[in-house]
Each structure stands twice: as C-alpha cells, then as structure tokens.
Amino acid sequence: MIEAVYAFLLKIFAQNPVLYATAVVIVMLVEGLVLATLFEAALRFLAMIWRKAGR
Amino acid sequence: MYLPFVGLEVSALLLVLLGFAVGVLGGFFGLGGAFMVTPALNILGFPMSYAIGSDLSHVMGKSIVATSRHHRFGNVDVKLGVLMILGTVPGVELGKDAILYLERIGIVDVTVRWVYILLLGFTGSYMIYDYTRFRERRSTRERMREHLGTVLSRKICSIRAPPMVALPTSGIGAISMWVILLVAFGTGFLAGFLGVGGGFVRVPALIYALGVPTTVAIGTDLFEIIFSAGSGAFLYALEGKVEIVGSAIMLLGAAFGAQLGTMATRQVESMSIRSYFAATILSASVSVLLKQISHVYNIPVLGQCAVYVILGASAVMSFIIVFGLLKNEIGYRVR
C-alpha cells in the first residue's frame, strides 16, 4: 500500500510540483488540526471520568 | 519501513518516538524542535536538504497543536506574531536560496553543521550565564526587575523610529515596528538556512532583545512557526525535498508530545524554563560538533556518539518535563 501512495505522490510531483507542495502543507495542517482536536476530546473525556470518580 | 524519497530503511517507531520527544520540547520551549530533528534525521541517513524539508513540514503540523493550547493559556501575542511573520517570510526565502546554492557547490553539510555548532553554542552559553547571574541575585527587588525586560530590550524599546506599535499582551507600551521586522528577518533567514522554525533563535531574541515575558515568547513563537515552517515546507516541497510519509509519522508522536510540553509550562517558573532551554540546545550543539569531528577526521565511533548524545538529550529532557508534569498534576489532585 505504501508503495502505491509513493507512486501517486511521485506522479503528482512530476506533473505539478506546486500541487504537490500545496498537498504537503494541507496534509500537515489537517493532520495537526485533527490530532489537536482528538487530544482535546481525550482530555475532556478524562476530566469527566475524573469528576465522576471523585463523587 | 522503506522511505523511497530518500532511499532509506528507517524504523517507524523511531520516527514516532523522535517526534514525541521533540514535541514535548517544542511545546515546552516554544520551538519547532528542528535543531534536534534535522541533525537527527541527517544522522539517520537523510541527506541534509531532505532532513530540512521533512522537518519543516512536520514542525508546521506540530506547531498548530501547541499554539492552540498556548492560546488557551493566554500566551499568544497575535499582533507581535503577525509582525514577526511579515519579516520572517522574505528571510526564509533568502535562507532557502542560500542552502540550495551551497548544495550546488557541494559544501552544504559542513556549512550548516558549523553554523549550528556556533549558534547553538553561543546562545546556550549566554542563557546559562544569564540564569546563573539571576540565581546569584538574592533580593526580590532585583529579581522583580526581570519583568521590566533586559538592558538591551529597554534600549531597543527606546528607539523612536515610527511607526510605533503597542503590544499589551507582551507588556510593551511602544516599540518601533522596524525593530520587530528586522529581528524577524534575521531569524527567518536562519530558519530557511538551517531548516528550523527559527525558535531557538527567536525565543531568546524575543526575551532578550524585545523584552517579551518567557511564556508569551514561547506561545507567540509557536504561532509564528506555523507560518514560517509552513512557507519553508512549501518551498522545499517545490524542490521535491520533503519526505512526506516520514513527516506524517513523526507528527503522530509530536502532536501528543506538544500538548504535554505546553501543559508543563504552567508548572515551571520562567527562569527555569530558560535554563532547561539552554541545556537542551547546548547538547544539540555538542552532538553536531561530534558529527563534524567524526566527518573531518574519519572517526565513525564519534558519529555514533553524536546519535546517542542528541537522542539521549532529547529523551532525557522530555522525560524530565513529562515526569515533572505528571508529578505536579498527581500531587495537585491528591491535595
């Protein structure tokens, strides 16, 4: 599977480097936002459990 | 796993752990952490330009995570950050051109390593000196003066070159916009040249040159790193110098670490953060120095030592920060 991803990326880069560079930035941006949201949700969940355990 | 862009076999777990360790350091110190990741990737076998490009892309993602949390803590001066971005972007472009030129004439690795060694060594040594001087000051009154900035920052703030801007979040009444842009341009050049977000230069510059409080310098720097590293990643990707899958894997660990590092800044006093910061960048400087000696005198064992120094220092400092955070959090809950 990873080979297919690389083949796709190389094809994009060969055809349009600007598109490839934009894709790199967007992938990192989205991954960062998703991970930040997941962590925030995990913290809220843990805090909720902590509060319930404290009662 | 095999990374075809750089033609290397690298452990994915190692990339995640490296990401986590520098994520903690990044969130805690306000750095992209590239000063450790770029040499580490280079030591792992990435050519320097790929190490820089891949690092810049993962730094951008990690900085988004850390900035969002610092913003919640009120540590981000958006106005200062935007002004810094305006000066940084042309600096990054010039730095990237310089590195590609050095690559063409075949002296990129040695030049980048020496700039790393000297810059990290000087900055770290000065911060250690500043910290020991601070510890020697016994009186509360003298310590309180730290909040008024440094001698240098007071002189810089007294420059009256209009337009002047006020930075209330940073506690600065009025400062020339040109001074901010100049600092940003210089740090941006280094970011593009060394493949770093510029944090290890910018955080001390914000603290010592502009007089910004440490935690605000950290948060604002991370805010700016999103854009400086983003533009750097874009420019390197245009040249095909980004190993995107490797970057994405590192970001998995870095995002988690950055959250923990950011939370830890609330548990430690400002001057202690500076001393940890100095120790970290000094160890990075030693590591790159070992690598350089190994390269020049053909002593492979020193090259291996460089790997252990940089990864060991990164792991130990991250452990100290995470352990301190957990200890304080648990202690607080128990009380």
Descriptive terms for the model:
heterodimer, A: 55 residues, 2 helices, 0% strand, B: 335 residues, mainly alpha, two-stranded antiparallel sheet, 13 helices, 4% strand
The helix/strand class of chain A is mainly alpha
The major beta sheet of chain B can be summarized as: 2 strands, antiparallel
Quickly count the domains of chain A: 1
Q: Which two chains form the greatest contact, residue counts included? A: A-B, 26 and 33 residues
Enumerate how many helices of chain A there are, as a single number: 2
User: What is the gyration radius of chain B calculated from CA atoms?
Assistant: 19 Å
Poorly predicted ranges of chain B (pLDDT <50, ≥5 residues)?
none
Q: State the low-pLDDT regions of chain A, or none.
A: none
Number of strands of chain B: 4
- The best one-word shape of chain B is globular
What's the tally of helices of chain B?
13
Given the C-alpha coordinates, what overall shape of chain A results?
Answer: elongated
Q: Mind explaining what this structure looks like?
A:
The complex is a heterodimer of chains A (55) and B (335). With 55 residues, chain A is an all-alpha fold. Chain A has one domain (2-54). Chain A has helices at residues 2-15, 17-54. Chain B is mainly alpha-helical and 335 residues long. Chain B has helices at 12-29, 34-44, 48-72, 78-104, 108-136, 140-144, 151-157, 177-194, 199-209, 214-238, 244-264, 270-297, 300-334; strands spanning 2-3, 8-9, 164-167, 172-176. Chain B has a two-stranded antiparallel ribbon. Chain B has a two-stranded antiparallel ribbon with strand order 3-4. In chain B, helix 5 runs antiparallel to helix 12 (270-297). Chain B is globular and about 55 Å long. Chains A and B meet through helix 1 and helix 2 of A and helix 3, helix 10 and helix 11 of B.
Q: Would you kindly provide a brief summary of this structure?
A:
The complex is a heterodimer of chains A (55) and B (335). Chain A is mainly alpha-helical and 55 residues long.
